[in-house]
Specification:
Elements lengths: L7 E6 L3 H12 L4 E4 L8 H4 L20 H6 L9 H14 L6 E2 L4 E7 L4 E6 L4 E9 L21 E4 L14 E5 L3 H11 L4 E6 L5 E3 L7 H9 L1 H9 L21 H14 L1 H5 L10 H18 L3 H6 L13 E3 L2 H4 L5 E5 L5 E4 L3 E4 L2 E4 L2 E4 L8 H4 L2 E3 L6 H4 L18 E3 L12 H21 L5 E3 L1 H15 L30 H13 L5 E3 L19
Parallel strand pairs: 1-2, 1-6, 2-3, 4-17, 6-18, 7-16, 8-9, 8-16, 9-12, 10-11
Antiparallel strand pairs: 4-5, 5-6, 13-14, 14-15, 19-20
Bound molecules: flavin-adenine dinucleotide and NADP nicotinamide-adenine-dinucleotide phosphate.
């Protein structure tokens, strides 16, 4: 096999949680690597999403790297759910501590990546016209990194200020005394609205679909609590790796299915989960609520009652109660004071189902027959999830195959890690892996470590080239859909299904099999010589036995 000389062993695209750890791992393996990052600094999600109120929905002691026990012991989280500035400081600290910045080129957008068959290299083109080459290419471009600007007539003619939550200005926004419209009531809207409402003259919330929301129950972390966590940190992390959601500190699993629990008992249990707070409170709640809409409805009833208990105006409370999709079919939103915000005099809720936005005028928003004059519009309208950032890059594999064309009917991957026809190209937390259904740092670390192990095994065996077998990719893609099919995830117009982006194929993208099961599959494949992959033109077939891995106990 003829191989050209490359600038680097590996080019990594993106410097969020995934890209930073990938770079560190590659250095540990003795490989030369370069990270290309569009932003001016590290942080990814936490660099871009600086909107007021942004914070994590998984406890920070778990929404953080586990790869370095020293880092784990020295970093002081100040709150149970850290705010965006604190998470960004953490990632900046990681970059400094492991001296990562010297191999990262910031303010560099990757425009294209082309596989060169004769040289067996990736040619990666930047928006500045530069071309770099590498034997391997890793896309750690993020699942929620391509913000969705809605197509609303007149939006660009608005005379005031317009901000997307996912592209928030670094200097912040002066809301003092302003009239503000917030469009969108997913997690980003729900986190930002209470904070914005405290600063402004008036905020008008434009809601198309209400969300199911659980309280963060955020608080300062006591030194004694942190010390206790640190003592058992290694064990905690190991446990998390084998759970469904990548979280070990959540409330205990429910002892019985929701449908078999007497109503009083169910309410008591959900009260406890509500008091526990955050996603951790509800991740282990009643597995039947993920497959049976009637079970989901019992939990939904509870959450709606909570809304009615907080929001004083009954009509507003009803508008805030989701009724058109099952609970858990979208990632639960985690709030701090969201519903109580609607008890303020300066907050108004507009139901877009009764009064659709007709256009944005130079002075405000025309919804139904009413013009809402505003100074600022905040677009909390979400992301082109999982495939959005990859789709903006012109990625060409063998025979000039475009990834966008190959995925035109939906993403096709083996394990969410690789796609056939794109040799030596990896995706971190790609479609077909647990990814956005989990604590994403747990899932990112698992992918980085698996890729690292693979590259090390290949180097040891003198191997240079890997890609999935088409049959393996077919089996995996079918499996990802098959396990999602019976779940309530299929019953919502969610971004998991691409339903929030006009024209996007409706395919369930993440893998619902759970973090622990998925890890067991990946580990079993690695231990067995990577069946399903072609390595240097050869590969174990072993596809008939493939799904025996799925039956392996967690
Ligand atoms: P990202 O952090 O998205 O980083 C990707 C990087 O790639 C970005 O810096 C981007 O600029 C860069 N990039 C993309 N395209 C290009 C290109 N063409 N050229 C160069 N660079 C490029 N998950 C959780 O588990 N818990 C949470 O609490 C949580 N909270 C979240 C809150 C918000 C507001 C959002 C939007 C997401 C949240 N997530 C959460 C998901 C979050 O995205 C992940 O947890 C994690 O931060 C992803 O890290 P990443 O490195 O994979 O991707
Ligand atoms: P989202 O969940 O997709 O919510 C977008 C909101 O905008 C929805 O209410 C949507 O309404 C609305 N919308 C979109 N286009 C619209 C239009 N043209 N007119 C009116 N309304 C419109 O996006 P997100 O809130 O940014 O959250 C995305 C994901 O990021 C979350 O699920 C989570 O995984 C992650 N996140 C996590 C946190 C956290 O708590 N740590 C915070 C933010 C984000 P419809 O539902 O009707 O389409």
């Amino acid at each position: 096999m003829r191989m050209g000389k490359s600038d680097f062993d590996v080019i990594v695209v993106g410097a969020g949680f995934a890209g930073l750890y990938m770079l560190h791992k590659l250095r540990q393996l003795g490989l030369s690597a370069c990270v290309l990052e569009k932003a001016g600094d590290v942080g990814g999600t936490w660099y871009w999403n600086r909107y007021p109120g942004a914070r994590c929905d998984i406890e920070s002691v778990e929404y953080s790297y586990s790869f370095s026990p020293e880092l784990e012991q020295e970093w002081q989280w100040t709150e149970r759910y850290a705010s965006q500035p604190e998470i960004l400081r953490y990632l900046q600290h990681v970059a400094d501590r492991f001296d990562l910045r010297r191999d990262i080129r910031f303010s560099t957008t990757v425009a294209g990546a082309r596989w060169d068959e004769s040289g067996q290299l990736w040619h990666v083109a930047t928006d500045g016209g530069e071309e770099l080459t590498a034997r391997f290419c890793v896309f750690s471009t993020g699942c929620l990194s391509s913000p969705n600007k809605p197509q609303i007539e007149g939006l660009d003619s608005f005379g005031g200020e317009t901000y997307l939550t996912g592209l928030w200005p670094h200097e912040g926004v002066d809301f003092n005394g302003k009239r503000v419209a917030v469009i969108g009531t997913g997690s980003s809207g729900i986190q930002s609205i209470p904070v914005i409402a405290r600063q402004v003259d008036r905020v008008t919330v434009f809601q198309r679909t209400p969300s199911f929301v659980v309280p963060a129950q955020n608080r300062a972390l006591e030194a004694s609590e942190l010390a206790e966590i640190r003592q058992g940190y290694r064990q905690l992390r190991e446990e998390a790796r084998h759970t469904v959601g990548g979280v070990a500190r959540g409330a205990a699993p429910s002892p019985r299915p929701a449908l078999e629990t007497p109503p009083d008992e169910l309410r008591r249990e959900l009260d406890e989960r509500w008091e526990f707070g955050g996603l951790g409170g509800f991740l282990n709640s009643h597995p039947d609520s993920f497959i049976d809409a009637r079970a989901a409805e019992r939990i939904a009833d509870y959450l709606r009652d909570r809304v009615r208990g907080i929001v004083k105006d009954p009509a507003t409370a009803e508008l805030l109660c989701p009724t058109t999709y099952p609970v858990n079919s979208k990632r639960l939103c985690v709030d701090t004071g969201y519903f109580d915000t609607f008890n303020r005099d300066n907050v108004e809720l507009v139901d877009l189902n009764a009064n659709p936005i007709r256009q944005v005028t130079p002075n405000g928003v025309l919804a139904g027959d009413h013009v809402y004059d505003v100074d600022i519009i905040v677009l909390a309208t979400g992301f082109d999830a999982m495939t959005g950032s990859l789709g903006k890059i012109d990625i060409r594999g063998r025979d000039n195959l475009a990834l966008a064309d190959k995925w035109s009917a939906g993403p096709r991957t083996y394990l969410g890690l690789m796609s056939g026809g794109f040799p030596n190209m990896f995706i971190i937390t790609g479609p077909g892996s647990p990814s956005v259904l989990s604590n994403m740092v747990t899932s990112i670390e698992q992918h980085v470590e698996w890729i690292g192990q693979l590259l090390s095994d290949m180097a040891e065996r003198g191997q240079a080239l890997i890609e999935p077998r088409p049959e393996a990719e077919d089996v995996w893609t079918t499996h990802v859909t098959a396990v999602a099919e019976p779940t309530i995830f299929m019953q919502a117009d969610s971004w998991y299904l691409g339903a929030n982006v006009p024209g996007k194929p409706r395919v369930f993208m993440p893998y619902v099999g759970g973090v622990g099961t998925y890890r067991a599959i990946c580990d079993a494949l690695a231990a067995d010589g990577y069946p399903g992959f072609v390595i240097d033109g050869q590969g174990k077939t072993a596809l008939p036995d493939f799904f025996s891995f799925l039956r392996a106990p967690e």
